[in-house]
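Quick one: structure for this chain?
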Amino acid sequence: MLWHPRRMSQAASAEYFDGWYRHMAASGVRDAMFWRHLGLPAHLLSTSLLTWDGIADVVDALDVRPGARLLDLACGRGGYGLEIAARTGASLVGVDFSAEAIRQATANARRSGTTAMFQVGELGAIGLPSASFDAVVCIDAIQFSARPESFAEMRRVLVPGGRAVLTTWEAVDRTDDRIAERIREVDTRAALSAAGFVDVDVRERPQWRAAERALWLEAVDLEPGGDPDLRSLHDEGRRALAQFDLVRRVLATATAP
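Got it. Here's what it folds into:
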């Protein structure tokens, strides 16, 4: 997600997100909202804001063939990675620092009859062999760890010629302190280039934004009551709308040399 607090120790952050995912699984209201606004089918368990059309954009950018090895970084409940693997015929591995997310992703793959592997790992310390993937995707998560080591890890695990595709948000003005610090830190073009990637391309995707705005408007009108998942969504909606026009939606692509 976009605005969740993460200025805490890694252990505490993982614990926070474990609880977040548990609350999410217990509440069906969030999923229904996301399916409706993002145009997603009911089997796709989303923890980000990528639309159905956005998935097609990511698949086109990845340009992978059946049998390719695909890594989904910060995979959450696995919904997007499983959908991309189904469309491309790629062999999927998902990594997330939340053990609860990995548990749910594994169960999600089992229910769908998809062969995939999910394991706990960090964006900056993936824990998988070098040159072991043909493509890496990171959906709406690099803003949580936009440090050089995260981009270096993406390059490390890719074979020469492998593709990296990221979706995220960037500040229109990185000096504007009204924008969350983690978003101001995101500069995908500079970070991918500094990590040694070539053919770096970062493009705005304003067409994805209408669905985001509509979702957040509904979220702030929620009466969350005692539901911790809906309270989290309501609060996130308020933060997102306050900064909505100060950030831009981007799709970044790059190639490992």
